[in-house]
Amino acid sequence: MQTLLDVIIPVFLVIGFGYVAVWRNLFTAEGVDALMRFTQHFAIPCLLFQAIAKIDLGSSFDPALLGSFYAGASICFTAGFIGARLFFGRAWEDCVAIGFCCLFSNSVLLGLPITERAYGPEALTGNFAIVALHSPFCYGLGITAMEIVRNRGQSVLVMLRGVARAMFRNALVLAIGLGFIVNLSGFAVPDVVDDALSLVARAALPAALFALGGVLVQYRPEGDGRTIAMVCVIALVLHPALVWLFGSAQNLPTDGFRSGVLTAAMAPGVNSYIFANMYGRAKRVAASSVLIATGASVFTVWLWLMALN
Description:
With about 300 residues, this protein is mainly α. The protein is built from 15 helices and no strands.
């Protein structure tokens, strides 16, 4: 119970503040959209750029950790994709969007603050390694699958053009790529620039959590209950269970094991809705899954933390 109070509740209280502020018209929906754009396009990219530019690539990018996490994520994407088609008869494009909801854990807005509060800032190395590949991997898989089903019968060139266009418009992917370039080149970011980036980066998580709460007001659960339940079970139970299984089999170090399981245990991120909205497919499922799974994760994350301790 103390873990619930000390680690999880403060994070969800900030989300709750944002929810109540918009619900009671103390903060406008337009303001939340602007705040979310600030965090998604500026603050979080600054945070990720700094983390990747400074991380020790040799010791941080443990193949066992990344393999465990992304093997689990890929299985979850496949499970959501097949489940949507086989059990609910959704169109192929809807199946990709639903699979993406099962794939994209909220690794930044929830995974980073919960891991930091549970185990301290020094425990975030594994999280940052996962986050470094998260957007490129998830968007790469989701966009490629969507372009394949959308362009059935068309040339491979058309598909590749669509994938490249979507990837290189993503601020998170660009920030991570620039961070790798700086890290590998050995270029030292000037102190005055690094300090400015730090100022913006420090605003990333609290502002994003508040904005997430405000955004969730718009996501009214309507219909598709069984499909949404499938997404929640895959995201909150199956993914962390798979990472636990794969990590245990490879004897992952404790810090990496915790980072992998906890990140996998996070609810689908807002990017799940952004992806669905980008293609205009399964938007209600994505929106409701983000809302319901985020609420349910208060308890499921607590259980995973108890199991890890």
